[in-house]
Specification:
transmembrane helix, disordered C terminus, disordered N terminus, WDR89, mainly beta, WD repeat, Methylamine Dehydrogenase, Chain H, repeat
Length: 441
């Protein structure tokens, strides 16, 4: 059977070549050569796979060919750049802004195209854990803080005052957060206090006409994690779906439209370690992946929950031991990006000296796509991918914000400098040793 299948595939491929050579439709060619319609599906499949492979190869070439287009100037008070987000304007690309959360408890806003500094919000009483622009209003940016609040800032205003504050419960220390795709719900994850850890939810509506008001939570989920909730990510297109990751090793997917937490919990996957990053991938974003603080990688297909097929697509205990990098090494993972055009998931990692490694993910394993060098001089902490112009923003412990574009030439003569400052943010690395795995259907 296998040999017969091989022969059919080869035959289909040869007929596909003939089609391309003579530029005739499949049916006409088959009629002219007195062939049966047996190979028509194989021809179509072969051509489709060839085009898919070509698209992926082109995307990988573009990623490997990223070069520095812009570099921000160093601030008078250098700080680690911990998180980056780009505004999503409804009308004009030219108005895009970049927001960066820093280790000195400030949010800095830059022009996305020039990386010119615009303004800074520095009135945070605690450590910042994330920054996000609203999806439907490009002037609104949110930040979560360890003081138990999520604040909303209007970057059109010069004031240091937040236009809205979402307050948690007295013991809450927020270390992760996100806002859903229609800007209706905000969710923040807490550190464990005594025996409690929470996903806290708020109604985000009315942020533009409720200046300086404080909103109380809608409610919490409190039973699904038993340790710090390190990452939260709403689904890119389904506003009711959210995934959370924790130092307890669990990655939970919820449908918050359900009446209670038990019903809302769609699936629980175990990474066997402390979760450092989570994201969505795949067609219609039906896959979930995570990275761990000990540089592991897990990838699951949530679409298989109601089938007998395994949901685990790939599980790598330590990516550093798996990816082969000639004359270099991989020291850590930063996060992942799903490339919609090529339906391909990539990981971003790096070295302590500032090199950035781009890694391709497949069910068969991981492979190096390319390395971006001569940019940062220290550990890279954050990034943001822009699918529109295939560009990448990166920020690191050298206090520099870089914009990478395919084939770009850096015009700035500013020399990068090595920055060694004490971090105000210490990652908690607690490996979850349990080998138990759970799965809810």
């Amino acid at each position: 059977i296998f040999l017969s299948l091989q022969q059919d595939v080869i035959a289909g491929f040869l007929y596909a070549i003939l089609i391309l050579v003579v530029f005739h439709p499949v049916v006409d060619l088959i009629d002219n050569f007195n062939l049966t319609y047996k190979y028509a599906p194989l021809i179509i499949i072969t051509l489709g796979r060839a085009f898919d492979m070509a698209a992926v190869e082109k995307i990988e070439e573009q990623l490997a060919g990223l070069r520095i287009a812009k570099r921000s100037t160093l601030s008078e008070e250098p700080a680690y750049l911990l998180d980056i987000d780009v505004s999503k304007p409804a009308q004009s690309e030219s108005s895009r802004s970049v927001a960066v959360s820093c280790s000195n408890k400030s949010i800095r806003v830059y022009n996305r195209d020039t990386l010119n500094f615009l303004r800074e919000y520095s009135s945070h009483p605690g450590i910042l854990n994330g920054v996000r622009f609203a999806h439907t209003c490009d002037s609104m940016v949110f930040s979560a803080c360890s003081d138990g609040t999520v604040k909303c800032w209007d970057i059109r205003l010069a004031t240091q005052k937040a236009v809205q504050i979402f307050s948690g419960y007295p013991s809450n220390v927020f270390i992760s957060f996100d806002i859903n795709c229609n800007d209706l719900i905000i969710c923040a994850g807490t550190e464990k206090v005594e025996k409690d850890t929470f996903l806290v939810f708020w109604d985000a509506r009315g942020i533009t006409d409720c200046a300086s008001t404080t909103k109380e939570p809608l409610g919490v989920y409190s039973e699904s994690h038993n340790d710090d909730i390190t990452k939260i990510s709403f689904h890119p297109v389904e506003p009711s779906l959210i995934v959370s990751g924790s130092t307890d090793g669990l990655v939970n997917v919820f449908d918050i439209n359900k009446d209670n937490e038990d019903d809302a919990l769609i699936s629980t996957c175990n990474s066997d370690s402390s979760v450092s990053f989570i994201g969505w991938s795949g067609k219609d974003y039906k896959q979930v992946y995570c990275m761990t603080h000990d540089e592991g990688f897990c990838w699951w297909d949530i679409a298989q929950l109601d089938t007998e097929e395994p949901i685990t697509l790939l599980h790598v205990l330590d990516v550093r031991d798996t990816v082969c990098i000639e004359n270099d090494s991989l020291h850590y993972l930063v996060g992942g990006l799903y490339h919609e055009k090529s339906d391909k998931l990539f990981l971003i990692g790096g070295t302590y000296t500032g090199s950035i490694h781009l890694i391709s993910c497949a069910t068969g394993g991981l492979s190096l796509v390319g390395t971006l060098s001569r940019g940062h001089s220290a550990t890279v902490r954050s990034f943001c991918w822009n699918l529109t112009d295939e560009s990448l923003l990166t920020g690191g412990e050298d206090a520099q914000l870089l914009l990478w574009k395919p084939g770009a030439v850096e015009r700035s003569l500013t020399k990068k400098t090595s920055l060694k400052i004490a971090s105000s943010v210490q990652r908690k690395v607690r490996v979850h040793s349990s080998s138990s795995k759970s799965r809810k259907k």
